[in-house]
């Protein structure tokens, strides 16, 4: 594609693509493609000017330009790209409205004759007056009343200019809030409508893994516990409990039997099923999520509610202040100057903007926050509970050794284990499967029904023998497997620093797979930083054995740890902490963390983990770096600081405006202008980023 | 208002009601409206494009300005380091002497 470079600076380049017009879809396509390039940090495409602004990594300039030269809309690469729903159309719409409002006001003020302006102002004021009257009718003293009074009294005095400017600024504020709200909902919906890539399709030869796009209506797909239902379908076999939180907002799972319909995006919490696909890959899920978010109250934070109530409570005081000013000075002008200043609309406007903006900023740092109140909870939290596998450790455990018993062969055991483990989204399972793949051990599906018992293990039947694989507790205590005679010494000599996965065939221990689960390099430092930021207790809960847990806990530096914890116990622990008055953050990634995630004040899931954890969690963070937790905490604290400073500014500034107005120093027109401009100013400021770029080292 | 002006108003109203409305809603008039609306929309697009261009240029200027400041800061740091090194060297030579 031909392009010309319009501007360059360090790490940033603006190129204009050689085309007269660019459609919204084309702009989205180019933006998605650019963001997928390795050398690119961030990219934005403006369709009106056909310009692409690219922030590239160190030394990536040449690569970026080369890739751009080779790009074309018709290429295969472009056709295969999956472009997510962007808020480009919304932004365009609101930008036009904003510019329209500003230009309209300018034109009207400059060119319209006085009578026409008066008529226009009168017409525009009708909604405000109407709302004020309705407030009075219902005997409610709300912010709308003050706004209406402000506008009405200005007009009654013949001061149409002031009335016009007050309405203009109020309208501007409302537009900004509507725009930000809509954008936040869309961003949230976009990150929640993640797609899954591959599904298990049941064919005559057994289960085959296929990419989602190749699945046709009428195909049968198998979904196991913890997996996400990828497409709208009807249950053919199996009874399951389905969590429909992403669709209806309800977190209580519902039972579904053969013959009932299940929807794309919901998660199988218990049981397994085979589904017959009804609809192919569709976009209906996105819209469902948007409507669900709009209806849920989760977006609001309690700070916003407080601000809203405070704003309404202050209205009578403003009215009283105005009356007192009149009584004391017998001067209508001064009383009006006081009336023109309503604290309230600044509070009502800037608080939601601050919270929504913080949520947007969190998404820039790869964290999806599903509601304002979770940011508040993160700022207040004094206890953090970590899951071990996948959270404190990389979710890539590696098979270190396979120790066989009963004279069996290593590769056969590994093959068997991989065969069972590949159906489940646990990181230990992935390690086994990967190790088998590396050794070139392929297998056919030689097992029958596979049963997964949460936090325990997997049971199945192969060639008429019962095969189980899982933890010590599961294999020895629950299933009563025995160690082959004479191999006790070998068993005791198993290296202690690895996690052990026990494989038993026909009631007898067949092999022990030693898995090393490397700790994240930044884990220790992250916990240290969190402590500095005010988290008083850090706890690690894991289903692993006591030995491994102790070693990891010592390495990472948590205050407390508990080993061999079952999922219900994790939830119970969190609830006990909450009952003791602590605000608890829970961090996890697997199916067994879901009860604890919902029990905590804030449940954070790693985005690479099990689908159900992501659905239930209140916040998801990207898997690359645990430092994002620290960033999230800094962001939340900054948000609370901003909210408090907003309060102080609004009350302080407007209070002084009132005093000046009562003293006669400010005229009504001036105090109205100052008040409304300061409201707009603080709203705009609430929309800026909270964290400095340098604080996080990111652009 | 004398009789003639009232008469004129009446005549004007009658004319408007009969022929005027027909003219305003005729096909030709509709054509005019369509072209005017198209022109207004074009103007709106033009304004929006200008706004977009201004935004981009402002962003460019900001980026360049940040660049300049960073370069200055880096230069000052290098100069300060250089001074420290020469000061340390001088001390060493003094001690040796």
| Distance between the ends of chain B | 115 Å
Question: What kind of assembly state do the chains in view correspond to?
Answer: heterodimer
Q: What is the radius of gyration of chain B?
A: 38 Å
Mean pLDDT of chain B: 89
What can be said about this structure in brief?
With 699 residues, chain A is an alpha+beta fold.
Q: Which keywords apply here?
A:
heterodimer, A: 699 residues, Alpha-Beta Plaits, Calcium-transporting ATPase, cytoplasmic transduction domain A, seven-stranded mixed β-sheet, six-stranded antiparallel β-sheet, 26 helices, disordered C terminus, B: 97 residues, mainly alpha, 2 helices, 95% helix
Structure description:
The complex is a heterodimer of chains A (699) and B (97). Chain A is of the alpha+beta class. Chain A has 26 helices and 26 strands. Chain A has 5 domains: 81 residues, Alpha-Beta Plaits; 214 residues; 65 residues, Calcium-transporting ATPase, cytoplasmic transduction domain A; 133 residues, Rossmann fold; 119 residues, Calcium-transporting ATPase, cytoplasmic domain N (3-Layer(aba) Sandwich), CATH 3.40.1110.10. In chain A, helix 11 runs antiparallel to helix 24 and helix 15 packs across helix 16. The longest helix of chain A has 36 residues. Chain A starts with a strand and ends with a helix. Chain B has 97 residues and is mainly α. Classes of the chains: A alpha+beta (699), B mainly alpha (97). At the A-B interface, strand 1 and helix 4 of A face helix 2 of B.
């Amino acid at each position: 594609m031909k392009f010309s470079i319009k501007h360059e600076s360090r790490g940033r380049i603006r190129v204009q693509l050689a085309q007269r017009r660019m459609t919204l879809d084309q702009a989205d396509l180019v933006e998605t493609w650019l963001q997928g390039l390795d050398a690119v940090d961030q990219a934005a495409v403006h369709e009106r000017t056909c310009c692409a602004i690219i922030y590239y990594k160190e030394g990536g300039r040449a690569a970026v330009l080369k890739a751009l030269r080779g790009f074309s809309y018709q290429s295969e690469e472009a056709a295969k790209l999956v472009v997510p729903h962007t808020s480009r159309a919304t932004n365009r719409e609101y930008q036009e409205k904003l510019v329209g409002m500003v230009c309209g006001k300018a034109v009207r003020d400059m060119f319209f004759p006085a009578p026409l302006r008066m008529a226009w102002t009168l017409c525009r004021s009708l909604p405000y007056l109407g709302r004020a009257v309705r407030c009075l009718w219902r005997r409610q003293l709300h912010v709308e009343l003050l706004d209406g009074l402000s506008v009405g009294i200005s007009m009654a005095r013949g001061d149409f200019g002031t009335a016009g400017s007050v309405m203009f600024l109020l309208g501007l504020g409302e537009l900004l809030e509507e725009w930000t709200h809509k954008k936040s909902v869309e961003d949230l919906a976009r990150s929640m409508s993640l797609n899954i890539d591959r599904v298990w399709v049941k064919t005559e030869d057994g289960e085959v893994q296929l990419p989602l796009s190749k699945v046709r209506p009428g195909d049968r797909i198998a979904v196991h516990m913890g997996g996400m239902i990828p497409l709208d379908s009807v249950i053919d076999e199996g009874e399951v409990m389905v969590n429909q939180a992403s669709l209806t907002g309800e977190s209580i799972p519902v039972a579904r039997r053969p013959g009932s319909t299940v929807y794309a995006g919901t998660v199988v919490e218990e049981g397994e099923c085979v589904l017959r696909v009804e609809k192919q890959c569709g976009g209906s899920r996105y819209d469902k999520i948007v409507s669900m978010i709009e209806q849920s109250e989760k977006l609001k934070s309690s700070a916003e509610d407080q601000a809203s109530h405070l704003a309404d409570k202050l209205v009578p005081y403003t009215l009283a202040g105005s009356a007192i000013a009149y009584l004391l000075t017998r001067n209508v002008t001064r009383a009006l100057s006081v009336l023109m200043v309503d604290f309230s609309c600044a509070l009502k406007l800037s608080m939601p903007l601050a919270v929504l903006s913080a949520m947007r900023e969190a998404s820039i740092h790869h964290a999806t926050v599903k509601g304002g109140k979770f940011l508040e909870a993160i700022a207040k939290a004094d206890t953090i509970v970590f899951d071990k596998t996948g959270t404190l450790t990389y979710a890539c455990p590696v098979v270190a050794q396979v120790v066989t018993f009963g004279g069996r062969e290593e590769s056969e055991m590994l093959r068997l284990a991989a065969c069972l483990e590949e159906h489940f989204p646990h990181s230990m399972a992935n390690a086994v499967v990967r190790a088998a793949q590396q050794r070139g051990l392929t297998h056919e599906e030689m097992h029958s029904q596979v049963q997964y018992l949460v936090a325990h293990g997997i049971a199945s039947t192969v060639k008429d023998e019962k095969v189980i694989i899982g933890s010590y507790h599961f294999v020895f205590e629950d299933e009563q497997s025995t160690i082959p005679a004479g191999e006790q010494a070998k068993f005791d000599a198993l290296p202690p620093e690895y996690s052990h996965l026990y494989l038993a065939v026909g009631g007898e221990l067949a092999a022990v797979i030693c898995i090393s689960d490397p700790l994240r390099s930044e884990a220790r430092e992250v916990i240290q930083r969190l402590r500095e930021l005010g988290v008083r207790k850090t706890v690690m809960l894991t289903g692993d054995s006591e030995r491994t847990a102790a070693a990891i806990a010592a390495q990472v530096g948590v205050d407390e740890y508990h080993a061999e914890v079952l999922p219900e116990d994790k939830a119970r622990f969190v609830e006990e902490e909450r009952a003791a008055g602590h605000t608890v953050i829970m961090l996890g990634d697997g199916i067994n963390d879901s009860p604890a995630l919902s029990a905590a004040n804030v449940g954070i899931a790693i985005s690479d983990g099990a689908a159900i954890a992501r659905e239930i969690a209140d916040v998801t963070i990207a898997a690359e770096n645990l430092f994002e937790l620290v960033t999230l905490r800094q962001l939340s604290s900054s948000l609370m600081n901003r909210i408090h400073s907003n309060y102080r500014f609004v009350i302080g500034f407007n209070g002084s405006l009132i005093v000046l107005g009562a003293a006669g120093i400010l005229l009504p027109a001036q105090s109205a202008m100052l008040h409304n401009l300061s409201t707009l100013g603080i709203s705009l400021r609430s929309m800026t980023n909270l964290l400095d770029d340098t604080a996080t080292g990111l652009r | 208002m004398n009789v003639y002006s009232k008469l004129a108003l009446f005549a004007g109203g009658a004319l408007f009601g009969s022929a005027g409305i027909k003219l305003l809603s005729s096909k030709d008039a509709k054509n005019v409206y369509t072209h005017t609306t198209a022109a207004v929309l074009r103007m709106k697009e033009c304004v929006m494009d200008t706004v977009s261009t201004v935004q981009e240029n402002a962003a460019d200027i900001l980026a360049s300005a940040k660049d300049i400041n960073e370069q200055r800061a880096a230069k000052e740091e290098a100069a300060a380091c250089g001074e420290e090194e020469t000061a340390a060297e001088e001390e060493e030579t003094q001690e040796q002497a």
